[in-house]
User: Fold this.
Amino acid sequence: MVGKPALAVNSSPIALYILVGIEHRNPTDEVIWLFVFGEEIDLATPHLVLIHGLIGSLNYFDPQSRLTEAHIHTVDLLGYGTFRTHPMDKVTLAEQAQHVLCQLDRKIKDRAAPIWLLGHSMGGAVVQFVLDHAPSLIYDRIYGVINVEGNLTIKDAFWSSKIAKKSLSEWEADFRQQADSAEDWLTQCGVIPTPQRIDWARQILDNQPASTLHHMSRAILTETIAPAYLDSVRQALDRGKRYHLIAGERSASDWDVPAFLREQAGSCREIPQTGHLMMLEAPDLFTQAVHDIYCRSE
Assistant:
């Protein structure tokens, strides 16, 4: 490591001291660092924000240890995980997006490094609403989107449509049965149960109450059916946002990706021998595909 030349900025007695330096990882690779009150923040390494789908989280397969060369942030949406007790009566996908933006403001300390947004299933729709509602300072830093079988049209709401048709009491009874047998739930999802997958499935099923799933299923059907939803995807592409698509090999043919998005996507990848829950079935293959996108995308 070479020395880190620094510039101190102090404009008032309570001013923020900022020191900027350069560290060489190798002769051709430079990393810019920011020091804020003694805290060292890498300005060159991108932030990857993972937004989960209708059920579960994206914490269970430990993406932080599997993904390198990025700062990894997993976000619990309202009604899930740490926010599972949040009142859901009026929560919309747009409100979920505002929640994500608040979490980004809290989690991401620097104001320069690029941001990648990854959304799985319903999370793909939330990502689109994040783009719609992001202030310019955040929007301009969003380098690209990794859409993992995200909801694009009403045809993609295969779980949501089944749940939304039922009354809350009916769905609560059904979900109670699913939560009581993670192995059976995996089988119903087309996933071969193994001890590791069963343990992860329990974490997924325990991550939210049935009422959250019921409410968000109805929100998905209401908010992604509007023509303005796909128009916002077109607008983001027109403004230079990079979209990359990831699907499971078994479920790819059921994903209703509009022709314009498939044609303009930076890449379209399938994870071999997996379905919609590809990160549960093949976490290493999934994270390698994600890593390749944010490391190799120009």
Q: What stands out?
A: Residues 76 and 83 are 7 Å apart (CA to CA). The chain has two domains: 1-43, 45-172+210-296. Residues 45-172+210-296 form a domain with the Rossmann fold fold (CATH 3.40.50.1820). Residues 1-39 have pLDDT under 50 and may be disordered.
